[in-house]
Amino acid sequence: MIRAALILVVALALSACSVFQIGERYDKSIDDDLNTFQTETVSFITTMRINAGLSAGAYTSDTAKAFYPKATARLANMMLRASLLSSRQCPISRTAPLPPIVSDAEAAAIIGAPITEDEVRGNCVVVMLDAVQAAFVRVEARHKSQGQIGETAAKLGTTAINNSVLIALGGIRSKDY
């Protein structure tokens, strides 16, 4: 009887004190900005695809010249705010590096951005936003190299943006348990 009571007291004490955080705390402004970024980016890709072959769909168009810097700044601001959520490092940043399928130079040429050793750093929201940024950099690099966004590039870009934003939103919306 005493043993059962003691177990019950310990279990109740542990359950009352066992709140721990999985992920970073929720930030509504990052959530809202990420939703806006996704909507604007997919809309932009669709507009560029529709106008492929026309000057309005070119990388050098006024629409593209206005969109890319604005979207880049929005992502940079989200990443800055995310870095302030927590100083913890995402566990993925401590995993062993896998041998590359292609060299860093080849990968940089493919995605149009330099590859660095410290690519994956920061709390988990920052790491997930890094993936969104990498997808966005590929969209812009492909648009720049091809001069337009055709059907295939639009499908690849939209899928990459949607998937990376979906994963990031899942992480951002994680709650305290």
UniProtKB/TrEMBL annotation:
The keyword Signal applies. Keywords: Signal. It comes from Devosia litorisediminis. This is DUF4136 domain-containing protein. PROSITE patterns: PROKAR_LIPOPROTEIN. It comes from the Bacteria. Residues 1-21 form the signal peptide.
